[in-house]
Each structure stands twice: as structure tokens, then as C-alpha cells.
Amino acid sequence: MKNIVVLGGGESGVGAAVLAKQKMFAVFLSDQGKIKPKYKKILQKHSIAFEDEGHTTSEIFKADIVIKSPGIPDDLLLINNLRNQGVEVISEIEFAYRFTDATIIAITGSNGKTTVTKMVYHILEQANLSVAMVGNVGDSFAMHLATQPEVDNYVIEVSSFQLDNCVSFKPHISILTNITPDHLDRYNNNFNLYRKAKFKILQNQGQDDFFIYNEDDLAITEFLPKISTNVQLIPFSKKQLKQNIAAFIEQNTIKINLNQQKTFNMSINNLNVKGTHNAQNAMAASTAARLLKIRKQTIRESMESFRGVEHRLEEVKVLNNVNYINDSKATNINATFYALDSMTKPTVWIVGGVDKGNNYQDLLALVNERVKAIVCLGIDNSKIIDAFGKTVDELVETANMADAVLAAQHFSNAGDTVLLSPACASFDLFENYEDRGRQFKECVRKL
């Protein structure tokens, strides 16, 4: 019997442990921090040995395979020592993949991946296909395999951290939405290392598989020729493309050409979610659906009924003719760029958190044009103050969501928008971006 050690007792780690136990491995889970009570209950229910608030290295080094949670850095001394001793270190996504023959549709990117994942899942569900949505949204991939009936199709949102530790993971369809500077603190502030991690999504794909990518993203198109692959490439773009296999927008209409298939047309005016970035997301998702031979009408109806993603430009409330918008999922500069770019009214911007190597200069023109006041929400706001202190008339610092919302209300007038779009991670003041977004909504609804 092989020994499996799982490092990290969160969603993916516990899912991996449960699947490993089900597959008759000897399993031990170890977490440097404190495991949440809900996860301890799951481990106890499945009789899985575990520890928290520290690692017992003598137990960990008994491992034949280590499954590492994505939050644990690759350059940790413990991880390096395990690899030096010949122990295989993989991600939960990689481990789960080894136990299914289902069709995999995998989505990654700096921004938009959750929206595209949910769009693809929504279309497949509306088409009555056997499908589950796993990974960074929904259940962990491993937990779903262990505890739910297996499905024919898995739609998986994967992060660069998960891809870093994939070996054989091979989607039938992969989608890369974009690559912009993010998580650079985990990649030695080297954008190229981060970009390479994203491209690992196609490393095992072959000539019968498909890679759908953003042709408008220079970070993708300049790197793609350096990749040795025979996967079928399908670009999507805001501009008209001449290729036989491509998706693009022409005269406010999404057009998808897939060789011998008739062109698929869909007006972007009929999309339930607005904005150019959502038109691109819909293009990517609809292209995947067409490759799976889903009827055109089903795709159109699905995109017309798709409601968007919580914490992504989510309208919360209109109070005294001020629109409050929750974009807590914007944890990097590019995501916040999309948000500010979609603002059509004077905006009070709530920003801040754990900086991930942000270059705020990229937002300067938009802030100058659209933002009337800035409310900082974080423990260290110095970079934000340095970047925008001379650009806006009003800038204040707050250390909790209630104060941030009250300050934003104070600065806003009828016809304005209050936008929470932090451009930063949330871990200084909140459990995660969902917690941050929910606190924002609760505070707004109490006004």
C-alpha cells in the first residue's frame, strides 16, 4: 500500500485526502496552520489521520506521493527536501485526474476564468449533458470524484498554482482567457515564470485536443510560438479574424468559425452580462460548447439567461440614486482595470488589501478620468496613496468594511457609483475575497 501525505487542510487538500482514502491508500494530512472545524469533521468521518498547527517531518517523509495544496509555495524548504529524496509532489487536480476518463474542459487565466467556467457549465447543463463544475469553483475535483456520481464532463477552473504541480493532466479543451501580472510574489517577481505556469494547461494536449486562447493578448500571442505542441489552436478576438478556425466580434455580433461547421452567430446585445470583457468570455465559452457539438440555439439561450458571477461587478443596491457595485473578485490590477473602464458615472473607488506586486500606474488614466474619491481598505495603503494621492481630491484610509462603506457614502452624490474593486488579495482583513464581498454587501444593505 502506497503512503500518501496531503499538505494543507483546506478544500483541495481534504478532497484529495478523501479520494486517496477511498482508493485504498494510506493517508496522512498535515497542515502548518489550524484546520477549520468543518474540514476536521470530514477527515474524522473518513477516518483520515491528520495534524494541524505544525508538521511532523518524520511522518511526512514516509510519503510515496505528496499532494500539495495550491496555497503552499513551491520553493518551501520542506517541498525541496521531499523532491530531493525522490518523492513525487503533485497537485490535487493532477491526483484526481488520474482516476477519471471523463472529458475535461479546463479554464485558466489571470481574469475571467471563473466567469468562463460558469458559462461553459451553464451551457452544458442547459444542454442536459452529464456535467460537473469543479476546481476553484464548486467542489474540489478530488472531492467530487470521491463523493458524487461520476459525470461524463468536468468543467474545471485551474489556477497557475495548481498547474505548477500537474504532470499528466490533459484537458480535451483548454481555455486561456488572458495573462496579466498577478501572483508575482509567488514567481520571484518574474512575469515570464507566471506565464509559463499558465501555459502548462496545454503541455499534454495532442492533435485531437483544442486550445482556445485570447488573440488580443500580447502576453499570449508572443509566447505561443515558443511552445512545442500539435494541439488544435482556436483564437478569439474583439477584432475580425480571417482564419478558418476562429471566434471574433464583427458589427456587435459574435461569430465562430470551426472549419466545416456553419458559422455560429450571436448578437452581443442579447448577452445578459454586459461589457466587452464579457463578450470575450462568452466567445470563449460558446466556442468550447460548439466543439462539444451543442446546438446553436441552446448556446444562445444559455448566454441570454446567464446571470454572471457573485463578487464580479455585482450590483448590490441603489440608494439615494447611488449605485453600489461589488467587484471583490478583482484581486489584481487588470481585473480592476476592466471594472473602472466599465464605469460611466463619477465613481467612489474602494481599493486595497494585500499587494501582489501591483503597478498602479496602469490605472492612472482611468482614475484621473472616472474616480472622484478613493477609500483605502487595507493594513498598508502606502502604494495606493503614493500612486493616486495627487490624482483625486479625496482619499481616506479605513481598516474595516463598515468604515469603508460609510466613507464611500459620505463622498458620493446622487448619480454616482460606489465601486469595491480592491486590485489586491484580501487576507490582511478578510478570510478571502468572498468574505470581503459579502461584508461589503451586508454593510451596504444596512445603510
From TrEMBL:
<keyword id="KW-0573">Peptidoglycan synthesis</keyword>
<dbReference type="Pfam" id="PF08245">
    <property type="entry name" value="Mur_ligase_M"/>
</dbReference>
<dbReference type="GO" id="GO:0008764">
    <property type="term" value="F:UDP-N-acetylmuramoylalanine-D-glutamate ligase activity"/>
</dbReference>
<comment type="function">
    <text>Cell wall formation. Catalyzes the addition of glutamate to the nucleotide precursor UDP-N-acetylmuramoyl-L-alanine (UMA).</text>
</comment>
<dbReference type="Pfam" id="PF02875">
    <property type="entry name" value="Mur_ligase_C"/>
</dbReference>
<dbReference type="GO" id="GO:0005737">
    <property type="term" value="C:cytoplasm"/>
</dbReference>
<dbReference type="InterPro" id="IPR004101">
    <property type="entry name" value="Mur_ligase_C"/>
</dbReference>
<keyword id="KW-0436">Ligase</keyword>
<protein>
    <recommendedName>
        <fullName>UDP-N-acetylmuramoylalanine--D-glutamate ligase</fullName>
        <ecNumber>6.3.2.9</ecNumber>
    </recommendedName>
</protein>
<dbReference type="Pfam" id="PF21377">
    <property type="entry name" value="MurD_N"/>
</dbReference>
<dbReference type="GO" id="GO:0005524">
    <property type="term" value="F:ATP binding"/>
</dbReference>
<dbReference type="InterPro" id="IPR036565">
    <property type="entry name" value="Mur-like_cat_sf"/>
</dbReference>
<keyword id="KW-0133">Cell shape</keyword>
<keyword id="KW-0131">Cell cycle</keyword>
<comment type="pathway">
    <text>Cell wall biogenesis; peptidoglycan biosynthesis.</text>
</comment>
<feature type="binding site">
    <location>
        <begin position="109"/>
        <end position="115"/>
    </location>
    <ligand>
        <name>ATP</name>
    </ligand>
</feature>
<comment type="similarity">
    <text>Belongs to the MurCDEF family.</text>
</comment>
<dbReference type="InterPro" id="IPR005762">
    <property type="entry name" value="MurD"/>
</dbReference>
<keyword id="KW-0961">Cell wall biogenesis/degradation</keyword>
<dbReference type="InterPro" id="IPR013221">
    <property type="entry name" value="Mur_ligase_cen"/>
</dbReference>
<keyword id="KW-0067">ATP-binding</keyword>
<keyword id="KW-0963">Cytoplasm</keyword>
<dbReference type="InterPro" id="IPR036615">
    <property type="entry name" value="Mur_ligase_C_dom_sf"/>
</dbReference>
<keyword id="KW-0132">Cell division</keyword>
<dbReference type="GO" id="GO:0008360">
    <property type="term" value="P:regulation of cell shape"/>
</dbReference>
<dbReference type="GO" id="GO:0051301">
    <property type="term" value="P:cell division"/>
</dbReference>
<dbReference type="GO" id="GO:0071555">
    <property type="term" value="P:cell wall organization"/>
</dbReference>
<dbReference type="GO" id="GO:0009252">
    <property type="term" value="P:peptidoglycan biosynthetic process"/>
</dbReference>
<feature type="domain" description="Mur ligase C-terminal">
    <location>
        <begin position="311"/>
        <end position="424"/>
    </location>
</feature>
<keyword id="KW-0547">Nucleotide-binding</keyword>
<feature type="domain" description="Mur ligase central">
    <location>
        <begin position="107"/>
        <end position="289"/>
    </location>
</feature>
